[in-house]
Task: inverse folding
């Protein structure tokens, strides 16, 4: 008998082991299948495949959430568009979207990420040679074009979220237009003759330099699909010579729009009050709050957490989930997971959640009506990040998020008459940004005539000239506008802002590349330090142990090194996982944003690899930080400022009056001559991330800009 019992129990265990996880995943797969079939786009799968077969360029317009991004690539894969090893590439303006969507689609296909489905974004690549559906940022595809000008591995390229009209999307559209023409002429010409014909064809293609090397190479034609959530497809259709546009009907339930009676003076506070009002007074359903950036999101996250214990026990079931561009990718997926039983999810998002990321379960939207944008003033050359009102189109997209699965409510935190005063749509980024990065990329792609490039909408000529001037002053362009050798070529290979690239390229000469790699990584992420209002003194004391009297760059370097040292020591006595956990705790104690630090570490390892591949020698300046500061002067010289008698500063290249941001370690010190990383315009012109330099260094290291006054 005992043996029977033991048999029985083994049997039970076995059944559990087999059925448990498997049954779970089976149920999940079934649920996913049902979800896929129920998406609005599923009804037109066949029609879409026909349209793609018939048209080399197709524009697909469909409401957010209809299934464009996740489904279309799978339809194309199943429809045979990857035959002969071709890859379907889908570009996104945002990293977060590329990552989350790729993970979702891999799961839908029952594949491991990095096999059939993968993503590739700046500083992170999960694809392999077996990847056939590849999600990536538009900027990344542009970088790929540097190495493979015909994007020859792709059979289909889908430019997603084209309505966002980011600079990278706009440039990509221009590039793809040329690549597609070349590939279709290459395919047909090859059948007729080897040479000659193609050269003639080149004449009607602008920016022909891209085609330089195409002779004699047989390339399969490229299918191009432009996807947009805005209903107006005209601009894309006209740009592609009257290309066909198809609409995918979405599903939208009614959304009640509520406005405030009076304008709000503090929208962050108003958002906080609204979150609790919804939570305490409204029925079940998740809340999506639109904020302008990481700092704002994290401060609201803390404020909500602080207030929770003051609510009655039964009302504390709130699950706060942030989502913004630089959030580490493992955290990004959290928005898609359902909240624990009985909990309400509060998602704090940037405008990422407007169209690029569709989050299920949202019933309430809180829209303060603000968005952070980068602007550019060609006359002064400054490029501040500013917080502005959204456009009507953005407000409508935001409220639409509340009505995806049932009727919803949207709380606009401004009076109704303000809505009618909003601009209809957002101005394309290319018309309001510094173009130096784009120009560097285009030059590297062989496009010499920037003004003649076939942009979907021409950027301001003054902005082009100013940006070329900046590149010239940085030494990236020669007198006749060509990429300089080696500086310009090296700079174009780095996936960074031209000034940062310059800093790395010259750091080699100052023997401080090791330090500069860290500084640039730390500058590339938002807010390493945080100072909660109620713990201002404590956070200041914590910062003191890393701070340098010579400025924020050295402070960032010290912080990075201290964290590195802590992690290494921790790894000696505990597992890697435990050490990472300890590091997060250490960060918290030191008022360091562990998410940002992690991001900086990732960036560091990537750009270190980049400079190694370029053959640069990574040397360190050791204890003496003078070479590092001189190197900063040699690269950030366009952002130099001098102290004025009244304690403000004058930015030398723009002539603007600026002030040191209170978060800077030099806020009280007020040195004579400084360089800064960025200008933030709120009610004042604030400069951030500052280092002390000597004015004479500018004359010595940037004689093209500075001379001794007589
Ligand atoms: O691109 P579009 O806005 O048309 O839709 P999509 O991004 O393809 O999303 C289709 C559906 O997939 C939505 O219902 C999303 O909620 C869901 N989805 C998801 O559950 N998890 C993801 N990581 C991405 C999408
Ligand atoms: Mg989409």
Result:
């Amino acid at each position: 008998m005992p043996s029977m019992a033991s048999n029985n129990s083994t049997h039970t265990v076995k059944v559990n082991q087999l059925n448990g996880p498997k049954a779970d995943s089976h149920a999940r797969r079934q649920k996913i299948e049902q979800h896929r079939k129920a998406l609005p786009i599923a009804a037109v799968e066949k029609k879409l495949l026909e349209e793609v077969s018939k048209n080399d360029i197709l524009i697909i317009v469909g409401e957010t959430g209809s299934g464009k991004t996740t489904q279309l690539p799978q339809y194309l894969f199943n429809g045979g568009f990857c035959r002969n090893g071709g890859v379907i590439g889908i570009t996104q303006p945002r990293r977060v979207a590329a990552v989350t969507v790729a993970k979702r689609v891999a799961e839908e296909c029952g594949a491991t990420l990095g096999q059939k489905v993968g993503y590739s974004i700046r500083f992170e690549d999960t694809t392999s040679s077996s990847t056939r559906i590849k999600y990536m940022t538009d900027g990344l595809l542009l970088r790929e074009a540097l190495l493979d000008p015909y994007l020859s591995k792709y059979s289909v390229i889908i430019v997603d979220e084209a309505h966002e009209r980011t600079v990278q999307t706009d440039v990509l559209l221009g590039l793809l237009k040329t690549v597609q023409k070349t590939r279709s002429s290459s395919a047909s010409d090859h059948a007729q003759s080897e040479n000659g014909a193609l050269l003639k064809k080149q004449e009607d293609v602008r920016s022909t330099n891209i085609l330089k090397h195409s002779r004699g190479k047989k390339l399969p034609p490229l299918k191009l699909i432009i996807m947009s959530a805005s209903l107006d497809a005209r601009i894309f259709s006209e740009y592609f010579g009257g290309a066909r546009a198809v609409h995918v009907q979405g599903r939208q339930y009614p959304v009640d729009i509520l406005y405030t009676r009076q304008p709000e003076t503090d929208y962050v506070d108003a958002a906080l009050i609204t979150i609790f009002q919804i939570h305490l007074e409204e029925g079940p359903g998740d809340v999506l709050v639109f904020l302008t950036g990481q700092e704002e999101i994290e401060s609201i996250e803390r404020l909500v957490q602080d207030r929770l214990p003051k609510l009655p026990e039964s009302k504390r079931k709130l699950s706060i989930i942030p989502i913004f561009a630089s959030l580490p990718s493992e955290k990004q997926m959290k928005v898609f997971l359902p909240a624990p039983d009985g909990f309400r999810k509060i998602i704090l998002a940037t405008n990422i959640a407007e169209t690029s990321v569709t989050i299920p379960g949202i019933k309430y939207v809180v829209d303060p009506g603000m968005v952070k944008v980068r602007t550019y003033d060609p006359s002064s050359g400054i490029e501040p990040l500013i917080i502005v009102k959204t456009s009507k189109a953005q407000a409508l997209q935001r409220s639409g998020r509340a009505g995806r699965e049932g009727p919803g409510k949207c709380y606009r935190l401004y009076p109704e008459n303000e809505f009618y005063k909003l601009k209809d749509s957002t101005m394309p980024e290319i018309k309001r940004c510094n173009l130096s990065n784009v120009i560097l990329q285009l030059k590297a792609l062989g496009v010499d005539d920037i003004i003649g490039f076939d942009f979907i909408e021409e950027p301001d000529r003054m902005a082009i000239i100013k940006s070329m001037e900046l590149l010239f002053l940085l030494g990236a362009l020669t007198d006749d506008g060509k990429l300089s050798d080696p500086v310009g070529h090296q700079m174009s290979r780095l996936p960074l802002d031209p000034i940062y690239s310059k800093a790395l390229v010259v750091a080699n000469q100052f023997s401080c590349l090791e330090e500069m790699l860290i500084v640039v990584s730390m500058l590339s992420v938002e807010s390493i330090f945080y100072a909660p209002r109620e713990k201002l003194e404590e956070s200041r004391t914590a910062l003191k142990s890393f701070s340098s009297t010579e400025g924020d760059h050295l402070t960032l370097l010290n912080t990075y090194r201290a964290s590195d040292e802590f992690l290494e020591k921790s790894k000696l006595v505990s597992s890697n996982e435990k050490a990472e956990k300890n590091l997060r705790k250490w960060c918290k104690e030191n008022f360091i944003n562990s998410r940002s630090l992690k991001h900086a570490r990732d960036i560091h390892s990537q750009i270190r690899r980049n400079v190694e591949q370029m053959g640069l020698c990574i040397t360190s300046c050791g204890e003496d930080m003078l070479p590092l500061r001189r190197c900063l002067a040699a690269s950030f010289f366009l952002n130099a400022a001098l102290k004025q008698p009244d304690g403000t500063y004058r930015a030398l290249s723009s002539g603007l009056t600026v002030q040191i941001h209170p978060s800077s370690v030099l806020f009280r010190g007020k040195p004579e001559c400084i360089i800064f990383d960025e200008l933030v315009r709120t009610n004042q012109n604030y400069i951030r991330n500052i280092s002390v330099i000597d004015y004479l260094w500018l004359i010595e290291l940037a004689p093209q800009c500075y001379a001794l006054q007589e």
